[in-house]
C-alpha cells in the first residue's frame, strides 16, 4: 500500500516541509513542497546569520507544515512516516526542525527518520526523473556544499570522491557579487550579468587543476581573490569595470572546473549517469557546459528543476521515502542533530 | 491560515489553533507543561481541577545541551507516568523564556508542533513567572533570576503576592539595582554574593508552576496568547564593511 512521507528541512535559511507518496513499485511522487525563506533577512549581512535563521525557522515551522498539508489536500493523520534533516548544517537551525519533527512523529504516532541533507539533495532528483540508476555520480553544488559523490544506493550508500578545500562554489558567487556591487545571494545576478558578457574576456585561474592537485577536490578561494585583484587593478587605472565580462569569465572558470572534474570522475569510476543538484545547479552556464561534456563522454545527465535543487522539505521527504522503502531502522527519539554529519551516514 | 499569521506580533510562533479556545467541559483539564528556558529539560502532565493544580507525572533532566534530545521523550514519559496518552491532553502550556535561545527554541518548537498535531491550544507563559509561582507565599517581595550566560542574568521582580512588578530583563548582576534581598532561580545561586541576595527555592520552573501561571486563562476558556519567545537580546550580527582589498593600495 502506498505510504505518505513527510519531510522537514531546517539546516540553513529555508524552512521546508514536503509531502511525498511512496508507491509500492518504489517510485516516489511529489505531493507538496512548501518553503519559507529567511534569505531577505540575511541580505544586508552578506551571508546567513545563524541566529536570525534559527528564529525564522521557529516562526515558520507550523505555518509551513499547515501549508504543505493544504497544498497536498491531506490531513496530518494520513502521514505514515516523518523524515527530518539531522545534518549537516547550522546547529541552532537544525535543532528547530529536529525538535518539531520529534513532536510531530510522537503526536501522530509514526516512525521518525533523521536523514542526511546532502543525500537529500540527490534523492530529490527521483521526484522528477524517476528511479536513479546506480552507481551514479553526483555533483552537489550550493552555497554550503561543493562535493563529488559516488552513489551506490540512494537510501544507504554515498561515498565522497572529492570536495572543496576552502569556499563552497555558491559562497564564491556571493563574494564575487559583492566585489562587483551585485546583490546577495550572488548566483542569480552573476548568471544574469554573464549572459551579456564574454566568458573568454579574462583568463581567471582554475583552482586545484594542476597535475599534483587532488584530482576531485575543488578550491574557489584563489579564484575569488583573483577576481577581486583584477577588479581593484581596473579601478586603480581609472577604468570602468566591465561587470558583464568579469561575471562571465568568473562563471566560466567555475563551470569549467566543476564539470571537468565531474566528468573525469565519472569516467574513472566507469559510471554513466550523473546528477547535478544544489542551489548552484540552477546556474545556466554550469548546466550548459555539463550537458555538452556529458554528451561527449556518453554520460546521461540529470539536473532537477531549480525549485527542487535549492533547500526544501521535498528532498528530505524523498530521501525518507527511499529509506522507508529500503526497510532501514527508524531513528530513536532521543537522537541529536549533527551539524557535521558526514555524507556516508545517510540515515541515523 | 496565513491571514491569522499576519495579525500576530513579530517574532511569534503561529499555531494553527491559536484562535481555538480550550473547550472546558470536563471536570479535569489535563495539561502538558514544557519548559526549556534553563538547564533543566522539563516536561510534566498536570491536572487542573477547579483551582487545584496536581502534577500527575513529570520528567526533568538538568543538562544544558540535551534540550533537543530529551524534551519529546520526556513529554512521552511524563504522560506514561500519569497513565495517559498524548491524545488525552486538553492543552499545552509552554515556557517562552527568557532563556538561552537554542535550548528555549527546542521546547517551543516541540510545544507548537505537539499542539498542531494534537489539535489542542498552546498557552505561553513567562518562564520566570513559573518559577515565581512556586515560591511559597510570604511577607516579602522577591526576585527571580536565571542564568543568561555571558555573565548576565534574566530577571524579574515580584511583590509578596507573587505578582510581577518589573521585568523580564537581561543584565549583568552588578548593574541590577534593587533593594530586594530574596531571590529564586539558579541565577540567584550563581550570583548570590555579587547581588547580596539570599537564594531560595526553586531553581527551575516546574510543570505545576507553569500551569499555575496559565490557570486563569485555562479555566477562563480564554484563547491562548501568541507563542512569542522572550529573547530579550538581538541576534549577534554585524553588517559587513566594504570588501577587503586584496592588493596593496
Ligand atoms: Zn543544501
Automatic annotation (TrEMBL), chain A:
In which domain of life is the source organism classified?
Answer: Bacteria
Sites where the protein binds substrate: 140-144, 174, 187, 191, 283
Co-factor requirement: Fe(2+)
Residue stretches making up the Gcp-like domain: 29-317
Q: Which reaction does it catalyse?
A: L-threonylcarbamoyladenylate + adenosine(37) in tRNA = N(6)-L-threonylcarbamoyladenosine(37) in tRNA + AMP + H(+)
The record's keywords, sorted A to Z, are: Acyltransferase, Cytoplasm, Iron, Metal-binding, Transferase, tRNA processing
Q: Which family does it belong to?
A: Belongs to the KAE1 / TsaD family.
Role this protein plays: Required for the formation of a threonylcarbamoyl group on adenosine at position 37 (t(6)A37) in tRNAs that read codons beginning with adenine. Is involved in the transfer of the threonylcarbamoyl moiety of threonylcarbamoyl-AMP (TC-AMP) to the N6 group of A37, together with TsaE and TsaB. TsaD likely plays a direct catalytic role in this reaction.
Q: What is this protein called?
A: tRNA N6-adenosine threonylcarbamoyltransferase
Species: Amycolatopsis bullii
